[in-house]
Amino acid sequence: MSSQQTLRITVAALMRATGENQTALAKGLRLTQGQVSRKQTGAASWSLDDVDRLSEHYGIPVSELWCGPTHAVEQLPQVRRAALTGGSQRVLTVV
């Protein structure tokens, strides 16, 4: 599996664990929903700057994002987790 595939799967798992949809994630990363959609479908690649913003957004070190979805979700700070998997929470915008 490529790094991009691993990251796409990891981001999807983090979105589910935090209750975010693409629109909420896009707002948090200061991207458009379309940009997030293209990155998640593989039509565009996540850049290293994007990875830095994902790390800050989810409160997870960059290195943990590359360890796969299960590991990354386990590293999520409790405050970032939705009350229910697939639930929702307030969006945190990266500055």
What separation lies between the terminal Cα atoms? 32 Å
Q: Strand fraction band?
A: under 5%
Total beta strands: 0
Low-confidence stretches: none
- Please report the number of helical segments: 6
- Determine the structural class based on helices, strands and strand pairing: mainly alpha
SSE order, one letter for each helix or strand: HHHHHH
Estimate percent helicity. 55-70%
Q: What's the overall average pLDDT, rounded?
A: 90
So what's the overall shape? globular
What oligomeric state is this? single chain
Major sheet characteristics = none
Radius of gyration: 12 Å
Question: What characteristics describe this protein?
Answer:
95 residues, 6 helices, single chain, mainly alpha
Provide structural commentary:
By secondary structure, the protein is mostly helical. Helix content is 58%, strand content 0%. It has helices at 3-18, 22-29, 33-41, 48-58, 62-65, 69-75. Helix 1 crosses helix 6 and helix 2 (22-29) packs across helix 3. The protein is globular. 20% of the residues are buried. The mean pLDDT is 90.
